[in-house]
Amino acid sequence: MGKLRSKAGCLTCRQRHVKCDQVKPICSQCQKKNRPCIREDPSKSIRIKPYQPRKAGGDPKDALSHDSDEIYHPAEHRAADTVIANPTSPEHIPNPSYAAFGTNGSVTSPYLPQGSTNLPKLTNDSVPAPLMASPVNNTTNSPYFSVVGLPISHLLRPDSLSPWSAASPAGAIHAGSPLTYREAYLVHHFATHLGYWLDCTDASRQFTRKIPTLVKQSPILLHAVLSYAARHVGDAEMAEQAHERCVELLIPSLSSETVTDDDILLCAIVILRVFEQLNVMVTGSDQERHLAGCSALLRASQGREVDPSTPGLRQAAFWVYMRQCLYNACVHQQAPNVDLNLVLIPPPAGGDPLSDLRSETAWANTMTWICATVVHFCFGSSYPEPSSRIRRWQELSEAVESWLITRPDTFDPIWYSEAVKESGNPFPEIWFTADWHIMAFGFYHLARMLLAIYKPSPKFAVRGLHSPARESDVRVMMHARAICGACNSSPSTVPSLITLCHSTFICKTCPGFVWDVVTDMDRGSFDDRFGRKGWSN
């Protein structure tokens, strides 16, 4: 059988139904017959075919040509300059030099070495801009299709603006270079395992749901996720490369005029902070560069109110930062680097599924905020006068108990039993149904424990770290056991193991009592759990 006629032959041969040898500029057939050799315009050869189901016995050549466009390029062979980013990403910023967030004052950038140029001081005048526009009303009645309210006829028009297109206000979800296999694996690992670490008080799981989609929009966010996930799975080389690349992209992006409104950039820095904490196992020290960077960005863009229901990614990132500050405050026995003069919005009432999620989130974050104020009272120096200190202690005690009384019933454990010595478990068994319930429970008992330790005495003396034991130590030990019991009953809730148990261990200000909690527990079991989670204890 002869060869089939090619579809790339000249139009003259096609019209005469003869085989064209495709010789350019004049094929053999046209040259022999002295005819004009007319070629098709290449721009008109690209056309979109209507969808047709693939037949089982399809042409292998079709499959080959289809697969040839999906070749993965390993990260080490892909030039950094070839990353196709969103036009608003840091890679498109014309001036890559170190620049300022704002225009007033100066503050040292946490991403510059000591002695480097100072960045102008941040201001509180800018209003945070939402990452994505609010969804419009849906035009369909189906409960299973509620993404955007665009008519089907509009979606079928080729010139219509798709919410997933690069020009869409929602951002270019498919705007970056295709992920390599390794990158996709790490992003998937973040989505299935690590996002929950950041969403432990967010019932809507915004980091878990949104970040894996947004990585194609922002190279900075992508490399932040890659560094975090690679460090967790033990790929040290990939983790360091991704972290270095992320910082390279991050520094020039600070010169953007819209940096204070960039929610994705804020999320990336929050994720980099987790990488920084995991990296302590390797470096042996915590430089807290990304924690300082997140603090500067938040203070530059935050208003005077804090919404505990986390309606957007910016608010979700703030509460991740809040918990990171709490961890550092307990580790270093210092006041958290948070502006506690902000006004906390009361939790919203529930009633429908969406409102219930926001209400659950708000109640968990409200307890986080109260705990932060307690930590600030205990380790800070804002109340040096004895009378003002005991008055503030009373206010905080009432706030903690008020939260316990007014919180929804869903925050109650579904099971509670005291410790049974014969069972080998020295802690009470406490079961919850959600991560944010466990975290709120832990922060409540941590606040109660610290208030008991730092309660002003009749002589208004603040309890020191190595002071002799007193009667209230029994209550301190009770709260410490409750924290460890909740963590022991829910080992998959990693933030409770890390933040709460570590805080309890490090706040061992009652040598004869609280430290018994540590010696009572199976240290080998807890060490093994922390090791499996990739965290140094």
Automatic annotation (TrEMBL):
Tree of life domain: Eukaryota
Keyword Translocase on entry: no
Zn(2)-C6 fungal-type domain sequence ranges: 9-39
GO MF annotation terms: DNA-binding transcription factor activity, RNA polymerase II-specific; transcription cis-regulatory region binding; zinc ion binding
Main location: nucleus
GO biological process, one term: positive regulation of transcription by RNA polymerase II
Gene3D superfamilies (UniProt xref): Zn(2)-C6 fungal-type DNA-binding domain
InterPro entries xref list: Fun_TF (IPR021858), Zn2-C6_fun-type_DNA-bd_sf (IPR036864), Zn2Cys6_DnaBD (IPR001138)
One Gene Ontology term, aspect cellular component: nucleus
Keywords: DNA-binding, Nucleus, Transcription, Transcription regulation
Lineage, top ranks: Eukaryota, Fungi, Dikarya, Ascomycota, Pezizomycotina
Region spans: Disordered: 41-64
Listed Pfam families: Fungal_trans_2 (PF11951), Zn_clus (PF00172)
Subcellular location field: Nucleus
PANTHER family hit by this protein: TRANSCRIPTIONAL ACTIVATOR PROTEIN UGA3 (PTHR37534), ZN(II)2CYS6 TRANSCRIPTION FACTOR (EUROFUNG) (PTHR37534:SF25)
Protein name (record): Zn(2)-C6 fungal-type domain-containing protein
